[in-house]
Write a structure and sequence with these properties.
The chain contains 13 helices and 17 strands. By secondary structure, the chain is of the alpha/beta class. The chain has a seven-stranded mixed beta sheet, sandwiched between helices. Helix 2 runs antiparallel to helix 10, helix 11 packs parallel to helix 13 and helix 12 packs across helix 13.
């Protein structure tokens, strides 16, 4: 009999009953240190009292009303986001792919409103990941994700990441904007090189393009700043955010400057669930924690401590882990063995991780971790490296 739950995921044979902080407790009676955080989503870990209390309280009052009516929780959250970011206005939706769809629509519509309806193409980068909708797998451009789904959606051009010469050569009279991740998460935890994002900003300003940042994975404190682009000293015109925004509750947002926000007039875009009372209660609760005095400073201190430990791990076990990449608490270990084998070995040692492109093992723990969790993870990765060393040595011998 075909499974009732569609088998489009390669799921590990693990199911969890509850979580506490950075730890998840499984049905098998074992607990695991969660350094995947639901793919960089459970930003406050598991069982966070403030987040859980705010969700429960809102659920007891009203869960959903739709956007036919005012949603005070969304109004409050949007105002707080505007105060904390470059944006003039916020659009709420449900997932990173939806946020990126709205971002691209806003770029195209704003160019049309400005008298350039021919400007419909968006330049994206090789190694990117922007979501699973038909348009966003086309923006991603990865042949593996496109296979079997027919012709790609038109309007996306791809150039090598971190290559400003290629970027400028790709700009035409039909180019509307650029979409970039400050760190390519799915693509192998590859950060933008110094000066690259500033070069994109300069090119957009020179040619009248809009600069869009995909911060679905890097936003909401993951990098050690509210948004990762802040490290570069430049700002986008529009930005997508999701994953950690609701602490695990499904939610996403588009942050936009006025020129793009005003393009999405009533009837031009919408969502049934986006920005509902329950989602925005979660978003406000997460923001309470992220904006608290000293929280992001602590994220940076913890990230520096973890990075130092991982660099030492790579130094000791270079035949297993060859390189450390990433920013803040989005880190990647490039593997000399298949990253799936490394992920399995880490799980057997008690550590949950996430695979990424370029044979990278991704680490994206909850932002609330401290040195104790880092030390535990480093011990588990030490065990992982020792288990994998014979296979790595054999691979090198071949």
């Amino acid at each position: 009999m075909y499974p009732a739950l569609m088998p489009n995921y390669n799921r590990a044979d693990l199911a969890f009953t509850h979580g506490t902080g950075a730890w998840l407790h499984a049905e098998n009676g074992r607990r695991y240190l969660d350094f995947g955080a639901g793919i960089a989503t459970s930003s406050l870990g598991h069982g966070h009292k403030h987040l859980a209390a705010e969700i429960a309280a809102q659920a007891a009052r009203v869960i959903h009303v739709s956007n036919l009516y005012r949603v005070p929780q969304a109004e409050r959250l949007a105002a707080r986001y505007v105060a904390a970011s470059f944006a003039d206005s916020i659009f709420f939706c449900n997932s990173g792919a939806e946020a990126n769809e709205a971002l691209v629509k806003a770029i195209r519509k704003a160019q049309s409103d400005a008298g350039h309806p021919e400007r419909t193409r968006v330049i994206c980068f090789e190694g990117a990941f922007h979501g699973r909708t038909l348009a966003m797998i086309s923006a991603t451009g990865n042949a593996k994700y496109l296979a079997g789904f027919g012709p790609p959606v038109a309007g996306f051009d791809h150039v090598p990441f971190n290559n400003l010469n290629a970027l400028r050569a790709a700009i035409t009279a039909e180019t509307a904007g650029i979409l970039v991740e400050p760190v390519q998460g799915e693509g192998g935890v590859r950060p933008a090189e110094p000066g690259f994002l500033a070069g994109l900003r300069a090119a957009c300003d020179e040619f009248g393009l809009f600069l869009g940042f995909d911060e679905v994975q890097t936003g909401m404190g993951r990098s050690g700043k509210f948004f990762a682009h802040e490290w570069s000293g430049i700002t986008p015109d529009i930005l997508s955010s999701a994953k950690g925004i609701g602490g695990g509750f499904p939610m996403a947002a588009v942050f936009a400057r006025e020129a793009l926000a005003k393009a999405l007039v009533p009837g031009s875009h919408g969502t049934t669930y986006g920005g509902g009372p329950l989602a925005c209660a979660a978003g406000n609760a997460v923001l309470d924690v992220l904006l608290a005095d000293g929280f992001l400073d602590q994220v940076n201190h913890t990230a520096a401590y973890l990075r130092a430990g991982l660099e030492a791990l790579v130094s000791r076990h270079g035949q297993v882990f060859t390189e450390l990449r990433g920013l803040g608490l989005l880190l990647g270990l490039k593997c000399a063995v298949p990253n799936a084998a490394a992920q399995t070995a880490a799980m057997e040692a008690g550590l949950l991780t996430v695979a990424a492109g370029e044979n990278v093992l991704r680490l994206a723990p909850p932002l609330i971790i401290g040195r104790a969790e880092c030390d535990a993870a480093l011990d588990m990765l030490e065990t992982t490296a020792r288990r994998l060393k014979p296979a790595a040595t054999e691979a090198l011998a071949k």
